[in-house]
Amino acid sequence: MQMICRFDTVSWDEWKPRFDGDAEDRMHAGLTLLQMWRDVDTPDAVVALFEVNDRSKADAWVAKQSGFGAALRADFLRTA
Questions:
Q1: Which InterPro entries does the record associate with it (predicted)?
Q2: Which residues make Cβ contacts (< 8 Å) with residue 49, sequence separation at least 6?
Q3: What domains can be seen in the chain, in order of their start residue?
Q4: Does residue 66 register a pLDDT over 80?
Q5: Measuring CA to CA, which of 47, 65, 75, 79 is 20 to 30 A from 26?
Q6: How many CB atoms sit inside 10 A of residue 58's CB?
């Protein structure tokens, strides 16, 4: 299963180091970052693709991330 997250950050420059510092928490949540993109027209908007190993842990990680200064939308997907 994959998860696509859109982070609407206040500032990419402030958000990215905090995201990078969260790598261990993502690992414990069963998430592997596969790709990250920045919106061309809105550079503080970020889209990330994750491999998900445990949906319930991923849901908990999303809930936690929602409190860190960036609006977050997460969609869980399966290959069709």
A1: DUF3303 (IPR021734)
A2: 2, 3, 4, 33, 34, 35, 36
A3: 2-77 (3.30.70.260)
A4: no
A5: 79
A6: 22
